[in-house]
Design a protein that fits this description.
Chain lengths: 222, 185
């Protein structure tokens, strides 16, 4: 957006084309209309990095530059969906070129990346991130902070239990302990839990977490 | 006026009716605590910006860069960095041939943090990173992260010659913190 700001003459029309519909929507809501409530704004994933583009867009708007947006489906998606009409238009070809360039850039930069990697890396252009160990938390900050707090609690609980003999360890933390050892895959475990329903799920949870003698489940079954 | 007198004055003053709900013993103690630990280790523990953990690099404002890889596996003299530098492939700047940074402990795969510690699972590594303080060097090693690149082309749609219409084009790699795949834009 900074380059466009330098190049665009006063009063021209700028058409922004991308294959990322979500990116365009975020750009429109965050940088152009600026009509998001504070609650919606902080929950926009890209809000942190869109501060600088907003500045440039507002500058261009004062110079009379109008913005329009166009969603251009990616070339591979066109082929996959069998909708290759209009895939030879200028905008479509340029969009494809951008995709190839971005793909090439993603695989390069090994020597440079090591210079600026690590939890210590400060955020140069985006200052409104919440961070964890110096790394920014993307997405909904309320959700992210909740997950982080949960992770810290779990880590400390497991750390505490690791100092106890096996017989004194809680049954409720068994799955977490196995995940920590790498014997259970966390993602697969979550998928299985999602697929289970009703009493089967209750039984599975019960067998993992242990059973209290006076649990509400028992009371219901009696 | 000492601290206790000031607190009592604030809490009992009729002028501050609106704020009285906020000024209680706990809030006061917390404010005093935060004031006294300013710019110390506790600030890092609270994930607050301080000199030890700036969120914006000083070089952005024209001062000396604060990037520091000391004490991490990314430091020049560390085995990891030397191994990465020695990878010889067709394109020396590519990540394609860089093997994952893992260590073997009793023949099991270990997931490494840049601080040098290794863990038996990604779950344990994530817990370790979550516990890290702001400004501390804990994260998965670079080759484990998905690679992200962005590119743009600015062209003049009114130009009669398509090949001369491109005004600017740029491509760059961006840092990804997420361990899952992210789409390139």
């Amino acid at each position: 957006m900074g380059s466009l700001n330098k190049i665009a003459p006063d009063g021209c029309e700028a058409q922004l084309s991308s294959d990322s519909l979500s990116g365009l929507v975020a750009l429109k809501k965050e940088c152009m209309y600026s009509d998001l409530t504070a609650r919606h704004s902080v929950r926009t994933k890209e809000a942190g990095v869109l501060g600088l583009p907003t500045f440039h867009i507002q500058q261009m708007c004062t110079r009379g530059v109008d913005f329009t947006m166009m969603h251009e489906a990616a070339c591979h998606n066109r082929e996959k969906n069998g909708t290759t009409d209009f895939s030879q238009t200028v905008a479509a070809r340029q969009n494809h070129a951008c995709e190839l360039l971005a793909g090439a850039a993603a695989q390069q930069g090994r020597s440079h990346e090591l210079d600026s990697y690590g939890g210590l890396r400060p955020q140069e252009g985006a200052t409104i991130f919440l961070t964890s160990a110096g790394a920014p938390l993307f997405g909904d900050p309320f959700e992210q902070v909740g997950w982080l707090a949960q992770q810290i609690r779990v880590a400390r609980r497991l750390n505490k239990e690791s100092r106890q003999p096996d017989c004194d360890r809680s049954k409720a933390t068994r799955v977490m302990r196995l995940m920590e050892k790498g014997e259970i895959d966390g993602k697969h475990w979550a998928q299985i839990c999602k697929q289970l329903h009703g009493s089967l799920k209750e039984k599975a949870v019960q067998s993992c977490l242990g059973q209290l003698a006076s649990s509400s489940l028992d009371a219901r079954m009696c | 006026m000492d601290e206790e007198s000031l607190r009592r004055l604030l809490c009992s003053s009729g002028i501050l009716d609106g704020a009285r709900g906020l000024i209680n013993q706990d809030a006061w103690d917390l404010a005093i605590y935060l004031y006294t630990v300013t710019d110390r280790k506790q600030y890092q523990g609270l994930e607050m910006e301080c000199t030890a953990a700036p969120t914006v690099c000083a070089c952005v404002f024209g001062r000396d860069c604060t990037l520091n890889r000391m004490g991490t596996v990314l430091a020049a003299e560390e085995k990891y960095n030397r191994a990465v530098a020695q990878v010889r492939v067709e394109n020396s700047d590519s990540w394609e041939a860089v093997p994952p940074y893992v260590s073997t402990d009793k023949n099991t795969l270990q997931h490494a943090s840049v601080c040098g510690k290794s863990f038996a699972s990604v779950y344990a590594l994530k817990n370790h990173v979550a516990e890290g303080w702001v400004g501390s060097s804990h994260d998965g090693s670079p080759e484990h992260r998905p690679r992200l690149g962005i590119a743009y082309i600015i062209s003049d749609a009114s130009h009669p010659n398509l090949y001369q219409s491109v005004l600017a084009a740029h491509t760059m790699q961006v840092v990804s913190r997420n361990s899952d795949d992210e789409p390139s834009t």
